[in-house]
Amino acid sequence: MTGLPILEIDKISKSYGAVKAVSDVSLHVNRGEIAGLIGPNGSGKSTFFDCSTGLQRPDTGTVKLDGQDITGWSLNRIAREGRMLRSFQKTVVFKALDVEENLIIAGQMFTFPSLLSTFGIGRMSKQRISGLRDRARELIKMAGLWDVRHQPAGNLSGGQQKLIQFASMLMPEPKIILLDEPMAGINPKIIERVIETILYANRSLGVSFLVIEHNIDVVTSICQRVVVLDQGKKLVEGLPHDIIADERVREAYLGG
Ligand SMILES: Nc1ncnc2c1ncn2[C@@H]1O[C@H](COP(=O)(O)OP(=O)(O)O)[C@@H](O)[C@H]1O
Ligand SMILES: [Mg+2]
């Protein structure tokens, strides 16, 4: 444990043709922190995530994870070696597999060295599977999915599938997770569950978060610090309550 931020992004820029999606944005996430990223539609939030997690290569700027320069690494390498994961706005689960199987598969993706052992062939796999099952069950309870743990994921509601996806992300023991609008399109009861699960992952499992979120109540209840983007640039950064009250932020949202 050091005082260094877990994620340090320095002056990232990304253009798509004539569109400057992100201009010179720097941002850090402290170890153990839940930081928020907000801004009007089209302000560059998702592009900033794309450039931070290896989906897109930034035109300029650097990304450091846990002190290591990972600029230019692929999404997969960042997930496997860097243990930084991200969610997309679309929910993806294995619909034919039950809830518990979904989580166990997610855990195997990064912790197992070969495809053979993914299918349970090989030394120590029994022990590993049993460790993964214990972790899966703990997360399933936390996510409020215990009663449906043996049901195919495809039979469950959109909100429950979101919870499965989120719990699955916690299986490979990530250091940091970037969430892109995790509450979009889900009902208030599920929102409560997602919040509880994020807080549990943060406090009990030590996972840091950077969260893009439009629901300002969610932002103020989980984030310790908020960064605001407007037209691809960083507008302001500060405590959630100061950010909401900030005149520049109000103008960016209202003035478009
Ligand atoms: N893959 C892409 N190709 C071309 N333009 C893109 C692409 N991704 C984003 N953009 C453009 O970049 C700008 C920022 O978009 P985005 O990062 O999605 O914003 P946000 O997530 O804040 O809504 C927008 O003008 C958008 O149209
Ligand atoms: Mg977006």
UniProtKB/TrEMBL annotation:
Domain ABC transporter: 7-256
Cleavable signal peptide: none
Keywords: ATP-binding, Nucleotide-binding, Plasmid, Transport
InterPro entries linked: ABC_AA/LPS_Transport, ABC_transporter-like_ATP-bd, ABC_transporter-like_CS, BCA_ABC_TP_C, P-loop_NTPase
Keyword ATP-binding among UniProt keywords: yes
Domain of life of the organism encoding this protein: Bacteria
Pfam families: ABC_tran (PF00005), BCA_ABC_TP_C (PF12399)
GO cellular component terms listed in the entry, alphabetical order: plasma membrane
UniProt GO MF annotations: ATP binding; ATP hydrolysis activity
SUPFAM superfamilies, sorted: P-loop containing nucleoside triphosphate hydrolases (SSF52540)
Keyword ATP-binding appears in the UniProt entry: yes
Gene3D superfamilies assigned to the protein according to its UniProt record, in alphabetical order: P-loop containing nucleotide triphosphate hydrolases (3.40.50.300)
PANTHER family tied to this protein: CONSERVED COMPONENT OF ABC TRANSPORTER FOR NATURAL AMINO ACIDS (PTHR45772:SF9), CONSERVED COMPONENT OF ABC TRANSPORTER FOR NATURAL AMINO ACIDS-RELATED (PTHR45772)
Family recorded in the similarity comment: Belongs to the ABC transporter superfamily.
Protein name: Branched-chain amino acid transport ATP-binding protein LivG
Species this protein is from: Sinorhizobium americanum
Lineage, highest ranks first: Bacteria, Pseudomonadati, Pseudomonadota, Alphaproteobacteria, Hyphomicrobiales
Gene: livG
